[in-house]
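Hi,

Apologies if this is the wrong queue. I'm a grad student, and the batch job for EF-hand domain-containing protein from Nesidiocoris tenuis produced an output file that my downstream script rejects. I'm not sure whether the problem is my script or the file. Here is the sequence I used:
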Amino acid sequence: MDTQTLLREEDGVSYQNLYDRDARRWFAADTNSDGNLTKEEFFAFLHPEETPRLRDLVVLETIESIDKDKDGKISLDEYA
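Support response: The file is valid. Your script probably expects a header line. Output copied below for reference.
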């Protein structure tokens, strides 16, 4: 299977989007910016909603997934 096949969109979500989300979480969890995650940092990466410094990122990701017109806000129509 080639890279383009792996990155195609399925059910509205592309593997590239998932990779980008995980990369953003990785760098947010990496508190000492060494590119590697300690046990504590990896826990934060896996459970961002349970980690105070990553909670805002979870909210931002949720807004981005609902915000169809990409205006940075969620309308009732977008939410429903």
